[in-house]
Amino acid sequence: MEAMPTTGEANPDLSLLDHCIIKVMQKWSVPGGQCAVAKDGRLVYARGFGTVDQITAGAPPPPIVSPTAQFRIASSSKPITAVAVLRLIERGQLGLEDRAFEILDDLTPPAGASPDPHLYSITVRQLLEHSSGLHSAAIDPQFDSLRRAADAFHHPRPATHVDIIRYRIGQPLAFTPGTEYVYSNLGYNVLGRVIEHRTKLSYGDAVRQLVLQPAGVKRMSLMTRSSPQARLPDEVFYVDGSGWPPCWPVYEDDLVMRPFSYGSFDGSAIDAHGGWIANAIDLTRFLNAVGGSTGTQLLAPSTIATMQARPDLPQWQGKDQFYALGWNVDRNRAEISHSGSLVQSTYSTIVRLVGGVTFAMVFNHFPSTDMAIELHDCATAAIGAVKVWPGKDLYSSADP
């Protein structure tokens, strides 16, 4: 195995984790990645791997990924939104059976369109568990409607997150709410607007107050305009797959063709379902605060049990692996997790294992779901092989 540049404190007890991450990254030609592991609330491992951008012949080598570099986390944003919703429920500001579009009664479809009769029966629970019917398996309105939704309301392109919701509610639901599971980015967009309605804050400010600040997370940010120029100062670049050609950006004032990872979507429209930017260290802080074994806890044990309960949906009957309220649950491994990917240029995963262990990984290229499976399997095996956990806590020195 060729050498790969790494950053962060090496630990012989976790050297298998170094080895497996480097091996998978090299196999799949992933330029940069990051991993953090916490045990009983202590950060015991935080490392960066590879470079913040792909290496180009004849150009100066890009910087090495640091343990605190920032990455898009895509759909690993959903558990963050879900925990914010559950915090509001614990405060009595919201209920799982509240009807989302009765709360958002000011959202209207385009002129001449009528809402589906079942729209106003969609509950907060159904949005969290992806059983709302707002999203078909074939079409993702959060990306498919960026131009058409703006045009429907005579708004400048790209459509806002509210434009997309309003455009979609003028069309029939894919199925009767509460009858099946179909993963829905749009459903979490709606939850973001419910959070705003109940808190009277922007989605980002509400989540910072409800979730991130109490968990000790200070540096997470939301995507704004999707362009290389809008990157955070310590954010990596995102590398497209070989099959993704450059495209014209969704922004009407941007006349330069962009890589697909920057030109094909608008970051501000995907806030609640996929818009957060973070590092692996802060993602373990979040995990530690949601059902962790020590430290500040955001939710009561009874709420954690509700969050991880198996939904009453046909796909999950008798199953020990299912999607609950914002999380993938695997009862065979005593594990909750979520992952995220974005136009083959981002991959993230956050995982809680049995025994007070949490870990997070982020990467700036995602060529295949096979890569994700390999990463998960080798990382959990490497972590499971640890005999003696380091006593040192790296959190105090983790922030720049």
What does this structure look like?
Helix content is 29%, strand content 14%. With 400 residues, it is of the alpha+beta class. The strands form 2 sheets. An 8-stranded antiparallel β-sheet has the order 1-3-2-11-10-9-8-7, sandwiched between helices. β8 (328-330) and β9 (335-342) form a beta hairpin. The longest helix is centred in the C-terminal third of the chain and has 16 residues, at 369-384. The model has no long low-confidence stretch (mean pLDDT 94).
Nutshell version of this structure?
Helix content is 29%, strand content 14%. It is an alpha+beta fold and 400 residues long.
Q: What structural class is derived from the secondary structure elements? A: alpha+beta
- Helical coverage, percent range: 25-40%
Q: Point out poorly predicted stretches.
A: none
Give the N-to-C terminal Cα separation. 31 Å
Mean pLDDT reading: 94
Inertia-based shape: globular
- Strands side by side in the biggest sheet: 1-3-2-11-10-9-8-7
CA gyration radius, whole angstroms = 21 Å
Q: Describe the sheet with the most strands.
A: 8 strands, antiparallel
The count of DSSP E runs of length 2 or more, i.e. the number of strands, is 11
